[in-house]
Write a structure and sequence with these properties.
Oligomer: single chain
Structural class: mainly alpha
Strand content: under 5%
Shape: elongated
Distance between the termini: 11 Å
Mean pLDDT: 94
Low-confidence stretches: none
Largest sheet: none
């Protein structure tokens, strides 16, 4: 992990990594592909971008898995409110992560399975 203060450009690209997830509102799987593409292109430019990009990708993959599980629970009716809560949590947590990245804070998403280390 990078302990130095990230540059303004690193903070910008880290913020974009987090916000790129909202492409998923337009493009199927965009919530994973958006952060993944930004991370793959910019990860070599700084440790902060690399770390935050991995966090964003891991978070969106994890929440996709949770969404699939909750979708199965729709059969027993508890899945509908769980999916709504998941969507709300996804939006709020992604915005918090983007704000923290813009401030240069090394943000770790909650409820995230660390696929990329």
């Amino acid at each position: 992990m990078n302990t130095s203060i990230p540059s303004k450009e690193e903070r910008l690209w880290a913020t974009i990594c987090h916000l790129a997830a909202f492409i998923g509102c337009i493009i199927p799987l965009g919530h994973i592909l958006g952060p993944l593409v930004v991370w793959l292109i910019k990860r070599e430019e700084g440790g902060f971008v690399d770390q935050q990009g991995r966090e964003a990708v891991n978070f969106n993959i994890s929440f996709s898995i949770y969404g699939l599980v909750f979708s199965l629970l729709v059969i027993v009716l508890i899945g509908v409110p769980l999916l709504l809560l998941l969507l709300l949590a996804w939006i709020i947590i992604a915005i918090i992560a983007a704000v923290k990245a813009n401030e240069g804070v090394n943000y770790r998403y909650p409820f995230t399975i660390r696929f990329l280390k």
